[in-house]
Design goal:
Blueprint: H1 2-19, H2 27-42, H3 47-72, H4 76-90, H5 93-108, H6 112-119, H7 132-179, H8 191-215, H9 223-233, H10 242-253, E1 257-263, E2 266-273, H11 281-316
Antiparallel strand pairs: 1-2
Helix pairs in contact: 1-4, 1-11, 2-3, 2-7, 3-4, 3-7, 4-7, 5-6, 5-7, 5-11, 6-7, 7-8, 7-10, 7-11, 8-9, 8-10, 8-11, 9-10
């Protein structure tokens, strides 16, 4: 069991790097359409309605994963194939690197209007009034957060729970992006999705911060700076998870992140993370390189963990 899962995680990571996300027919996009239809049907301005919505969609998705696990548990080859497909479907490392690289390119060329338009592919913050440094900062923060959410976390849950963990986590994370924010429509309805996503990312986000420190020297960053800034500044961030890796990235790249941030015309004055200089296009490039290294190391660790978990289960039988 462990060998099939381990091989599948590595195959999925390789597939994400090689082919990325298809422009049409992506499974996560299909789930998003189902989730949107379910929201229109079930939406009420109550937390209870959101709990039902989240439970049905995440539980139903994880249930499909359990079915796949039962079908493949006696065949390591089939388990590797199904785990590989699921891993490829839920990982976002390649698309994240592509968008980050594109942002670095237009920022380096001084194409501020183009960079403002592209920022929406990475995050939902207002970009109309951001200058080059503000756009670079927003991009590094988004690359950092998505390295944890879309790369490290799926691999962690894949190592722990296989296909059910992979697709169940991705379902929860997608719902958080869709309804887990404090807009008037979703403040109550999206509460359950937001809290579930927070819970599922508690462990991966902290592991991602540790990996940031370990991997920083590979891209010319500071391991001690990443560790020190993470331990000192992460808890000041309003998110229990995003601040972990954002602080670590700030220290690794020796830049400042945080500060004034605008989402949906609402201004947030976030704590400053790090004590270095302001971010620029070169830091965006380095953040993408760091994200890639973290992804590879996460994949190797996840595969190794899956193999160990499988061997332990086999010995108990």
């Amino acid at each position: 069991m462990g060998a099939g899962r381990a091989v599948g995680l590595l195959l999925g990571l390789a597939a994400d790097a090689a082919i990325g996300d298809p422009r049409r027919g992506h499974p996560v996009a299909a789930f998003g359409r189902v989730a949107g239809a379910a929201e229109r049907l079930l939406h009420q301005d109550r937390k209870a309605a959101g709990i039902v919505y989240t439970g049905l969609l995440v539980g139903g998705t994880a249930g499909l994963g359990v079915l796949a696990h039962r079908v493949s548990r006696r065949s390591p080859v089939l388990e590797a194939v199904l785990t590989g497909v699921a891993t490829w479907a839920v990982l976002g490392g390649a698309s994240l690197a592509d968008e980050g690289t594109a942002m670095a390119r237009v920022l380096d060329a001084g194409e501020i209007d183009a960079a403002r338009r592209r920022l929406g592919n990475l995050c939902g913050r207002e970009s109309a009034n951001l200058d080059g440094q503000g756009l670079a900062r927003a991009t590094v923060e988004s690359v950092a957060e998505n390295t944890s959410d879309a790369v490290v976390a799926p691999l962690v849950w894949g190592a722990i729970a296989g296909v059910p963990g992979l697709i169940g986590y991705r379902a929860a994370n997608t719902l958080d992006a869709m309804v887990g924010h404090r807009s008037p429509r979703h403040a109550n309805f999206g509460w359950a999705s937001a809290r579930l996503d927070d819970a599922l990312n508690l462990l991966p986000s902290r592991l991602a911060a540790v990996l940031t420190s370990a991997c920083a020297p590979v891209v010319g960053g500071s391991a001690t700076g990443a560790w020190r800034t993470w331990r000192r500044d992460a808890s000041a961030h309003p998110s229990p998870n995003a601040g972990q890796i954002e602080a670590a990235f700030a220290g690794a790249l020796q830049i400042r992140l945080g500060g004034r941030t605008v989402y949906g015309h609402v201004v947030e004055q976030r704590p400053v993370l790090g004590e270095g200089r302001t971010a620029d296009a070169g830091d965006v490039t380095r953040s993408v390189e760091l994200s890639r290294v973290i992804g590879v190391v996460s994949g190797v660790l996840a595969a190794g963990s899956a193999l160990v978990f499988g061997l332990r289960r086999d010995r108990r039988r």
